[in-house]
TrEMBL record:
Organism: Aquimarina celericrescens
Keyword Transmembrane found: yes
This protein's UniProt keywords: Membrane, Transmembrane, Transmembrane helix
Residues annotated as transmembrane: 6-26
Protein name: TonB C-terminal domain-containing protein
Length: 177
């Protein structure tokens, strides 16, 4: 009985250094430093995006251009003023009284085609909300027209674009950026 207790004690004492060695020597235990913000501006989660089935980005080793709206003036087919005028001319309120913001985030490939759309609807206090479905559908359809967007000067460049529509009483009062 005494021998059994000593045997168990010796085995435990021998296992502790071995387990410790394995714990610190195993590569899976070494943690990599993860960046605080692992995604880049313009990254669109394709699992949450719409208009993805017949859309593909052009082969580009880089991330889409257009971070922080820096290239937005170059993405519009003509310019932002004409884009705004097009929206104002074709948008119809249809007696809606919505207030808030409609944010559209999407990609434009090198052929000027749009896709990978993410839609965010916010109330006037910038909290998630639901705007009228027909209002959203109409602004999405008008904004995503390929005729609005320029093709890239380079055959593999893709763009990231976002639009924020300020809605007051169902009317588009501002388009940002």
């Amino acid at each position: 009985m005494k021998f059994k207790k000593y045997s168990i004690g010796i085995v435990v004492l021998l296992l502790i250094p071995g387990i410790t060695f394995l714990f610190f020597a195993t590569p899976s235990q070494i943690t990599e430093v993860q960046p605080k913000y692992p995604d880049y501006v313009g990254k669109i989660d394709l699992n949450k995006a719409t208009r993805t089935t017949e859309f593909s980005l052009c082969k580009d080793e880089n991330k889409p251009h257009g971070f922080y709206s820096s290239s937005a003036p170059h993405i519009y087919k003509k310019n932002k003023l004409e884009f705004r005028e097009f929206i104002v001319q074709h948008y119809q309120n249809r007696n809606r009284n919505d207030n808030g913001y409609l944010n559209l985030r999407f990609h434009i490939n090198c052929r000027g085609e749009t896709g990978n759309l993410i839609i965010n609807e916010l109330n006037a206090d910038l909290e998630p909300s639901n705007l009228s479905a027909t209002l959203v559908e109409q602004l999405v359809d008008l904004s995503m027209r390929n005729e609005n967007w320029r093709t890239a000067d380079h055959p593999t460049i893709n763009y990231y674009m976002y639009l924020i529509f300020k809605i007051e009483n169902g009317n588009v009062t501002e388009i940002l950026p």
